[in-house]
Specification:
The complex is a heterotrimer of chains A (438), B (329) and C (286). With 329 residues, chain B is mainly α. Chain B has 15 helices and no strands. In chain B, helix 5 packs across helix 10, helix 5 runs antiparallel to helix 12 and helix 8 packs parallel to helix 13. Chain B is globular and about 75 Å long. Chain C is mainly α and 286 residues long. Helix content of chain C is 70%, strand content 0%. Chain C has 13 helices and no strands. Classes of the chains: A alpha/beta (438), B mainly alpha (329), C mainly alpha (286). Chains in contact: A-B, A-C, B-C.
């Protein structure tokens, strides 16, 4: 028995020693270096119809960059399901790419890890200065008062897509501009097995995007000004209730939407099962689903009353992708050059056209290619009435907690259980209690 | 296994080759004593590297405040003492409540899933012990769920469980008229049933495979003798098949139990990052508590609690089954 | 043996219950497979529509598209290499360990078996980060790239399946009568000779079952592969998710690809079948 204990003790000691030496290994190389100036690794997010499509879009541009600078860029397109975990792992272990795409709502959370290179004014000068970028896009690059953690690459915004034929059949003259009109139109459309609109009820991210804009329209936020979670205030409760009521009370969304999480709402719209769709930059999706561009119209997302604008009149979140440099990069200058290249006017035009997004770079945005009616609505929204999701370190927790709470409320609505102010408040209170206390 | 060890050791020692063959050369004896350790060495090294050291690091993590502010350099993360544990087991507060709920769901799910997997697997193996016409074909078919990549298998079930367009509602509602309106399977309370179905569909072939292999070790003569004694099928099953399968079953049930309890892939593909409450398995819950909310300290503390629970259950299980095994012999 | 009315003939009730049970079970097993097959032959628009038992329009298009939507061939080869190597190593190492535990008495035996088993009680997801750190540190210290390489995956997966493999093999080895290998030892075989000439052949069904388990563990693992592999080393289990993109879920291609990659695995199982049912009954005893 004694020998067993000795063996066990030995094993534990050995493990602890190994553990101690292993801990903190991720940070061994701190602020970036220029040890391998001829090579870069780039993690791109999946923006196109598939990963292979993305490679076809990006590779020619990377070749161009190599011709200009002699730096070879190794491209990996990372699926969305893996991207955040990959970044987290890279941050922990120090083994990551040099340059990477991040969802812009993650900016503040990733900034807090200290894994990304801060873009102070000096560094921004190297890529032409902050002034080149649109304000709303810059507003989603990290916490206020700190140098941004990333540079805007692609911008997107929500818009209301509507089926022209179905609107005509239902006798709806103009796309709805307020939520009351939206519900009225939705009720007219909801007949014969068709529905007013569709929502991704089981997708926490979509839920939080909508819930946040609704909250803003009610003059509320999910965080207090000093950054504490405050999910269950009256405005937020009213906002979430209004959102879920589209299914629960107004019945302009099919109950089956409560389990949607794989963009079924887009294909429902493309197939004429729903008359309206609230989506970010949907043209490319709709095209790949076989819906012709003439078949649908595009309008700003409704507001409570009046017209879209700042403050309570916002009608979209600032959606988009940012480009970041990993702090452990061993080609700092090359990485900066690459960011400059990717945000240059010429590349911005090419890339944003390919992905049907809007360039966050002012000069590129002015290009006629982005003046189509669809792009005009998106551009206008981004310029005037889009709001960045809270730029706080807890943003990813907010997405999970509130997004899931809304998912459960949709499930209640779909099952025919009543969704009341009390039940919404209870759900949001529970979500808030799951947030870290500090 | 452990509780029988002394008895087994005793018998082995009595009959061990060294004892019967007498001392040879000194080096030979040394080699014989060192041999078991030598045989274990590769496994030991690998386990240490891939399982044990990470586990110890995990335990260390559970005493740290390891949030997104510190993951880049773990050394700087402040010690949290028992904070992560007190948060996890405070069943009056939401985090503890959610953990307890998730734990209970997991226990219920595991018991049902393992029970069904074992039952179906054993029944199928016993029914297919004798040759009949399509036995080979069936045997191959039955392994298909196990041979499919997890993602492919589960995503197919997601497809079938869809509310509007799925096969399950098409059959139950449209064709058989068993329900008033189409049911939800991927959200709400039914999600537990959905999870169980997928888990059993995916898991029973493994039980089938293991029991089938175990059945091969039962000498045919035993059945012939029993048949001559006039024992019926049921009696043969009770008196020969099940007792002979006992060692295999003991491990099989344990393996299935631990495996199902910690299964991550099935619920994750089925429900995504946030499972419905009725099917909130502990593995996804911990994943959410650590990866999604970036709080690895709390996630680790929950894992350590789970480890303790499973250690106790396994210990009790082994003690009970081994005693049963000894009395049966 | 199965001539009617012989003393061994099973009673009629048994035959009937067998028929009913196996029919139901076959249905349970096959319905999802049928759904995969029929969906894989439909155009995407039909797959996302209401379910129909019989497809209205058949196309083999998905079976062509799967190769260009994601590099399926490369993922398949990666998975085959990784799972194959992990299986062989895992089985060999488990055979040694299980033999030692089953046939020898030595100090620390119980500690070994219990410790090995306890590794299966810790949620896998929390191994991830520490394991990455260890691999990265090994890489930095020795230059052996374990992180993200196939070698690292093989090492990881073989260890993932090792504990259960050892435990299951102990069970199978225990059920091989000791007299057999003791006879071999008396006949002058060394301990390893006894293991490979007597115990292993007698436990072939168990070893095959364990090999299948080890293979499937590596074949289906998602989480670890999803964060460590890159485009060139990605395995199938993760790669299949490439059919579900930001914009679309290519259901028909997922189903087609799943079926295509599963055919060789099922075929392999079929080949192994005869070993599963060999073993003691084949006359190794007596």
């Amino acid at each position: 028995m004694r020998s067993i204990r000795a063996a066990a003790t030995g094993a534990v000691m050995l493990s602890l020693a190994l553990a101690a030496s292993a801990c903190g290994g991720g940070s061994s190389t701190g602020g970036g270096s220029n040890d391998s100036p001829k090579e870069l690794t780039y993690w791109a997010s999946n923006q196109g119809a598939s990963i292979e499509v993305d490679k076809k879009v990006l590779q020619p541009e990377l070749d161009k960059f190599e011709k200009q600078t002699g730096i070879k860029v190794k491209l990996e397109v990372v699926p969305w399901s893996d991207l955040l975990n990959r970044i987290l792992t890279a941050t922990t272990s120090g083994q990551g790419p040099d340059v990477l795409n991040i969802g812009n709502t993650w900016s503040a959370s990733l900034q807090a890890t200290g894994g990304l290179l801060p873009w102070d004014d000096e560094r921004f000068e190297k890529i032409g200065g902050k002034d080149r970028f649109v304000d709303s896009a810059l507003g989603s690059t990290g916490a206020e008062g700190q140098p941004p953690a990333a540079v805007p690459l692609y911008s997107m915004a929500y818009a209301l897509y509507y089926n022209k034929q179905m609107f005509a059949d239902a006798g709806i003259g103009a796309p709805p501009a307020t939520w009351d009109e939206f519900v009225t139109a939705g009720k007219k459309l909801s007949q014969d097995g068709k529905w007013g609109t569709a929502m991704e009820g089981s997708n926490p991210s979509e839920n939080i995007h909508h819930a946040y804009v609704f909250a803003k329209q009610h003059g509320a936020d999910f965080f207090t000004p000093d950054g504490k979670p405050d999910f269950a205030n009256d405005g937020a409760v009213a906002a979430v209730k209004q959102y879920v009521d589209l299914m629960a009370k107004d019945k302009v969304i099919a109950p089956g939407n409560a389990e949607y999480a794989q963009n079924q709402s887009v294909s429902d719209f493309a197939k004429g099962r729903t008359g309206m769709l609230l989506w970010q930059s949907a043209s490319a999706n709709l095209k790949s689903q076989g819906m012709s561009e003439d078949a649908y119209g595009i309008a700003p997302v409704p507001v409570q009353s009046g017209t879209p604008g700042p403050g309570k009149q916002v009608n979209s979140m600032v959606a988009g992708i940012n480009l970041a440099v990993f702090k452990n990069t061993d080609n700092l200058d090359g990485a900066t050059k690459f960011v400059k290249f990717m945000t240059s006017d010429a590349e911005q035009k090419i890339l944003n056209t390919a992905y049907s997004s809007i360039p966050p770079v002012k000069a590129a945005q002015a290009d006629p290619a982005f003046n189509t009616p669809a792009n005009a609505v998106l551009k206008d929204t981004l310029a005037k009435s889009a709001v960045a999701l809270p730029q706080v370190p807890d943003e990813s927790q907010l997405e999970t907690a509130v997004g899931t709470a809304v998912k459960d409320l949709f499930a209640d609505a779909a099952a025919g259980r009543p969704v009341t102010t009390d039940s919404v408040k209870a759900a949001l209170t529970k979500a808030q209690q799951q947030m870290p206390t500090k | 296994m452990t509780a029988t060890a002394p008895a087994a050791e005793a018998t082995v020692r009595k009959r061990s080759p060294g004892a019967t063959r007498g001392p040879r050369r000194r080096t030979g004896r040394l080699r014989r004593i060192g041999l078991p350790y030598l045989l274990l060495l590769p496994a030991l090294l690998l386990e240490l590297l891939v399982h044990l050291v990470p586990m110890v690091i995990g335990i260390v993590m559970s005493f740290k405040e390891l949030t997104q502010f510190y993951i880049r350099d773990w050394g700087t993360a402040p010690w949290a003492g028992l904070d992560n544990y007190t948060v996890s087991v405070d069943f009056d507060a939401p985090v503890g409540q959610a953990l307890l709920h998730s734990f209970l769901v997991t226990v219920a799910f595991t018991v049902l899933s393992v029970g069904l997997c074992w039952l179906i697997g054993t029944a199928a193996a016993v029914f297919m012990q004798d040759t009949f016409r399509v036995r080979g074909l069936l045997r191959a078919l039955f392994l298909v769920p196990y041979a499919l990549p997890v993602y492919a298998a589960v995503i197919t079930w997601v497809f079938m469980f869809q509310h509007d367009n799925g096969l399950v509602n098409h059959v139950l509602h449209d064709q058989l008229g068993l329900t008033d309106k189409p049911s939800f399977w991927l959200i709400g309370d039914n999600s537990f049933v959905a999870l169980l179905t997928v888990s059993v569909w995916k898991g029973w072939p493994f039980a089938f495979l293991i029991v089938m292999a175990g059945l091969q070790n039962i000498p045919r003569e035993l059945y012939e003798a029993a048949a001559l004694d006039g024992a019926g099928m049921i009696q043969q099953l009770r008196r020969i098949t099940l007792p002979s399968l006992r060692p295999v079953n003991q491990v099989l049930v344990l393996v299935l139990f631990l495996w199902t309890f910690n299964d991550f892939n099935t619920p994750y593909v089925l429900f995504g990052k946030s499972a419905p409450e009725a099917a909130d398995l502990i593995s996804v819950h911990i994943y959410q508590a650590s990866f999604v909310t970036w709080n690895f300290g709390t996630g680790s503390a929950m894992s350590v609690l789970l480890l303790l629970f499973l250690l106790v259950v396994t210990g009790v299980y082994l003690a009970l089954t081994s005693r049963g095994r000894r009395t049966a012999q | 043996m199965s001539t009617p009315r012989s003393p061994m003939a099973p009673p009629r009730t048994f035959l009937w219950s067998r028929r009913v049970f196996l029919t139901l079970l076959t249905g349970f097993v096959l319905i999802p497979v049928y759904v995969m097959l029929s969906s894989s032959l439909k155009p995407l628009a039909d797959v996302t529509g209401a379910f129909r038992w019989l497809p209205t329009e058949l196309t083999i298009r998905p079976y062509i598209d799967i190769w260009s939507t994601v590099p399926l061939g490369r993922y398949f080869v990666n998975s085959l290499i990784v799972a194959g190597a992990a299986t062989v190593c895992s089985v060999v190492i488990a055979v040694f360990s299980a033999y030692a535990v089953s046939r020898y008495s030595f100090r620390g035996k119980r500690v070994f078996t219990v410790t090995v088993l306890s590794t299966q009680m810790f949620p896998g997801i929390l191994f991830l980060l520490p394991l990455f750190l260890i691999y990265v540190n090994i890489g930095n210290a020795t230059g052996i790239a374990l992180f993200g390489s196939r070698g690292g995956l093989i090492l990881t997966y073989l260890t993932f399946s090792l504990p259960f493999s050892i435990w299951m093999l102990i069970g199978y080895f225990d059920s091989v009568p000791r007299d057999l290998d003791e006879a071999a030892l008396v006949d002058g075989c060394g301990p390893l000779g006894a293991l490979f000439r007597v115990v292993v052949p007698a436990a072939v069904p168990g070893i095959v079952a364990v090999a299948v388990y080890a293979f499937m563990t590596a074949w289906g693992e998602v989480l670890f592969a999803s964060v460590t592999t890159n485009d060139t080393t990605r395995t199938l289990a993760v790669g299949l998710q490439g059919y579900s993109t930001l914009n679309d879920v290519y259901w028909n291609q997922i189903m087609a690809a799943s079926l295509v990659v599963s055919v060789p695995v099922v075929a392999g199982f079929l080949l192994l079948q005869r070993y599963l049912v060999a073993g003691l009954t084949a006359g190794a005893v007596k």
